[in-house]
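Progress against Task 2.4 (sequence-to-structure conversion) is shown through the following example record, which the project officer requested during the mid-term review.
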Amino acid sequence: MKVRFFMVIISGLLFLQGCKKWLDKPQTENLSVPTHLEDLQALLDDNTNLNENVTPSMLEASADDYFLLPSEYNVISATHSRIAPYRWETDPFERDNDWKKCYYPIYVANLCLQQVDKIQRTDLNGQAWDNVKGSAFFIRAYYFLELAWTYSKAYDLASANHDLGIVLRLTSDIGENSVRANVEQTYQQIISDAKAAVDLLPTQSIHPLRPSKMAVYGLLARTYLSMRDYENALKFSDMALKIYDKLMNYNGDVDITGDLALNISPFKKYNKEIVFFTTMNTIYPTYFPTYARIDSILYNSYDIKDLRKKIFFNPLNSYYSFKGTYTFSLQSQFTGIATDELWLTRAECIARIGGSDKKGDKDAALNNLNQLLINRYDKNSYMPYSANNAMEALSIILNERRKELLMRGLRWADLKRLNKEGANKTLTRIINGQTITLPPNDNRYAQPLPNEIVLLTGMTQNPG
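Structure tokens generated for the chain above:
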């Protein structure tokens, strides 16, 4: 009951933070705030608001792994009106958005960081104290990265000090001015928070809804990969996998339920590959399996012996929809950290900078990839990849990364960083006879901030 009360208080504060009258006069003096470790841990264990239906849906709605048929597009336009990210346009609706969804867990993390430092750490409570503080640092870093992927340009060392980043809220003071940091500051804060969490968290958590040291390493691998710092991305993906590297075997695994071709998502919700569990919010519905059709070229790139072709997709009126989420629910897309992602990150980085000459190690890179894929192909049918050079190996790995990690909210960030390296990928939508394109490195890769946030704070809007 206490936790519910605290959540109501927090919700009220967040709702009122946009109101000038509220900001003009302190209103929190008589409000109860959590002061015990068990209360703080309970706030961080609130998976309804910190793990599930939280991570940005703009990332997937804007990406290129799916398309809408005209009939589905018109249905969404008529009933949901949340079509803007699919068109790479500004969303005219304000109240419900990815910005709000992500800053809520950041607020909770800041509140917990503020309160835990008021509690003396002792030998008796040390483990619980460390877990609260480490979890709060992790949650803040995790959602800062999600926001950076959504609302900032791709990290570029040449421009990061003046490209617009996100608002780095580091306190629970709702009256604090909201000012955008630059991209460099944004990523350095993410790294700082993640590294602050490392020594405080257990090596592995008691449940994937809670962060762990391994989850921190996975988050750092994601962060450095986004920065195209492949040496550090390799370091932290390798550190994570040295703790735990298990993969599901799609030929038969206790974490796979029923026939691979059944018309349900076949993976158990907390399967053995999951390191940290989060799911995508449902604000922007264009990616829903009900509407979205998987890109035909992508679908046809799976080998007939590749079990992902059965386990990931449902036939739907001459096309295919996606069912391969790690949530056991077609209504919920997994966006957390998992071992398959770490295997692919390590493989990519080895192909780029492995070996003493830092020019890539094709054999070691493909060995990592092959260890993943042997668990994805029909038994005894997998033919291991080989390559003539590291660049060829890298191309193979990036192709398999897309095929393994689709619909996890990762493709948008991958497009941003890879276009910085010359991938030259132009996205195209054909909508009611009109062709819309998104060129590489276009300003629209930094999604527009919600209009109400810009109006309330005076923050600079992203250029369209």
